[in-house]
Amino acid sequence: MVLIDTHAHLDDGRFDGDIAEVVARAAEAGLSHIITVATDGASCRAAIALAERFPMLRVGVGLHPNYVAEAPATDWDIVLELAGHPSVVAIGETGLDRHWDKTPFPQQEESFARHLELAHRLDKPIVIHAREAEEDVARMIKQAFDARGPVKGVLHSYTGPIGPALEGVQAGLHVSFAGMLTYKTADNVREVAKQIPLDRLLVETDAPYLAPVPHRGRRNEPAHVIHTAKQLADVRGIPWIEMAAITTANAKRLFSLS
Ligand SMILES: [Zn+2]
Question: 205: CA distance to ligand 1 center in Å?
Fold first, then answer.
């Protein structure tokens, strides 16, 4: 049994004291890779430094939509500089967010468009955050698809309606589920998970956030991805070992992991 956590934020300060133990527990739990996803320029550098320290880590470089407004303009230069680094397997975290009002929406759209263009140019998958803006994300993905063809990437920690998720799948995207899938009240998320083609499913932790049951409410970490994978297997009615194999194969293919 091998699992991959396709989305964690290991440069988060909450891991400063015990990052080596966190990575060791992930390896013990059967994970082959963790993709640590950056949110601003400093986070891009920190994520790459971690990947140089821990061989099972890979990196996404990008500017999170909620941090675009406050990020210095030079942060985009950092993304461009680091995007070709050997440990970088994805562009992001980017996307659109109407829940928080931290970056004016047009500025989020402009940043998302830049990330889409960069990911296409480098032929790397894009990591997309969509929060209360799933229709807007689907609209921009369709524009990218119409302009340049299939969009390689992932709608990460997806909790939105089924429509935009399937539009994303149509355009080439994968859909990734995090700990919310295990929450008692999240029937809507499980309903969506039932309808995504098996070859487009991924699992993640989004650690340190969104710890799955039975760790809910505490700091999340990559080893906990197993609970989300087991829940996803239940939702799809297939043996969980098979679900682990499917999501791991999908992650390896999408992020070109070896
Ligand atoms: Zn994230």
Answer: 9
Q: From ligand 1's centre to the CA of 85, what distance in Å?
A: 20
Q: Which two tokens mark 160?
A: 């939105």
- Please state, in angstroms and rounded to a whole number, the distance separating the CA atoms of residues 21 and 25: 6
Q: What is the rounded distance in angstroms from the CA atom of residue 192 to the CA atom of residue 202?
A: 13
Q: What is the pLDDT of residue 113?
A: 98
CATH number of 3-255: 3.20.20.140
CA of 139 to the centre of ligand 1 (A): 21
Task: Give the C-alpha separation, 148 to 98, whole Å.
Answer: 26
Other beta carbons within 10 Å of 67: 18
Given this model, what pLDDT does residue 101 score?
Answer: 87
Q: What is the pLDDT of residue 258?
A: 85
How far, in Å, from the CA of 149 to the mean position of ligand 1? 26
- Residue 204 Cα to ligand 1 middle (Å): 10
CA of 197 to the centre of ligand 1 (A): 23
Local mean pLDDT, 10-residue blocks, the chain (258 residues): 97 98 98 98 98 98 96 96 98 97 95 98 98 98 97 98 98 98 97 98 97 95 98 98 98 96
Distance 12 CA to ligand 1 centre (A): 11
pLDDT at 60: 98
